[in-house]
Amino acid sequence: MEERMFKVYASGDEKIQLKVIPGHFATPQSHISHYLEMTTMKTRCAEASRIAKYLSTKYETSTPVDSIICLDGLEVVGAFLAEELAKAGVLSMNAHKTIYIVTPEFNGNGQLMFRDNIQHMVRNRNVVILMGSITTGETLRKCMESILYYGGTIQGVSAIFSAVNKVAGLDINAVFYKKDVPNYQTQKASECPMCKTGQKLDAIVNGYGYSKL
Known about the structure:
Layout: E1 6-10, E2 13-26, E3 31-37, H1 39-43, H2 45-56, E4 67-70, H3 75-88, E5 100-102, E6 105-106, E7 112-113, E8 126-134, H4 138-149, E9 153-162, E10 166-167, E11 170-177, E12 186-187, H5 193-196, E13 203-206, E14 209-212
Helix pairs in contact: 2-3
């Protein structure tokens, strides 16, 4: 797949480069026409820092943030985002005057949950959700439901890439959007035109990476 790869560049910061591989891919919720390679963005300090700085500009200093809920292995970006928000003067309402970096987990039913020892980082906290890629918004909705169940207040949603502009009435603050990836498509598996023409899947993908078939 790698020989088909091309790059797209973030508006306003060409040093942020998203690697894109066209093909036929299956996510847990849909089939997509492009795989978005984000590994170095998540793991290299330089790239993670630039993404965090880019995303932080969307938050006003009047927006309180106590916790950043990280999905898709984005804890490094989350830590840099917390640092950028603190430098910008974003308020933290918790007693320690600092921002928690929190990772939920999925239970056997596919629901997001927070263990007892970290629930206090969500309950009565102002929360920003941070994701790698949002395609249908289904995983994001589950995350929102979980945060509300545990008593958190959602102040914003950020992502490296989002195929949608809003989910559950909340604007998505992303570095890249669907319009930035030429011909990007996402459909339910039952409606996938590539499946209907007999095109084989290249890989199964999720927020952590891909597994070739």
